[in-house]
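Q: Could you fold this chain for me?
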Amino acid sequence: MVIEALTSADFAATNLTDGLRRADGRPVEWIIAPAPVDYPEALATMRARAAAIAAGEAAEAVWLVEHPPLYTAGTSAIESDLLQPQRFPVYDAGRGGQYTYHGPGQRVAYVMLDLRERGRDVHRLVTNLEGWIVETLAAFNIEAECRPAPRIGVWVKRPDKGVLREDKIAALGIRVSRWVTFHGISLNVAPDLTHYDGIVPCGISDQGVTSFEDLGHLVSMEEVDSALRLAFENRFGPTVR
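A: Sure. Below is the predicted structure, expressed as structure tokens.
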């Protein structure tokens, strides 16, 4: 199962403060990669961990990484949205969504959760992933909002750039196999935003992208990681390192 986006009706019915906890309270392993991770290695590691979770051989996990500069294509990617195919490596991600960028200064959180223990509700999962990001940003006094399809993700209003202008600060794309999730979210802390020029990010050409740094918030990755962990625990339950 690949998650593309919530429909407008789904979005209207969701609650960003809902929560998606395990009944047994078992903690999720919280892992932070100490160095940049190549994308093929990340895919292989995620798939292996998700398979082990499905088989009852491993605990759920959230894996926080940075990648070298690259583009990934989701299952709905349109070839014409890859504007500069030679600029960075391009990988078929196998997740929902279209083209996106990953690179230094962006926190990617790969989320491997067992939905058999969390209600088997994929739309509720997506809503809580978005709410997790919104809550994390609020810890830094950044007001962000979510939008219905096709603009899945987390957005910041930019009236300084024009009426109704919004910039995307975080993206998400999820795949679910045997009721276990993998892939996850990406949050722009201080990436080189010009690297997005090589694609039409998530297929949306009339809005932009932003980051903590672009919004004037100079924070460390460690500070963002701490806020991510607290907000995750508020929604999904305890973590352990």
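A (continued): The first strand starts at residue 2 and ends at 3.
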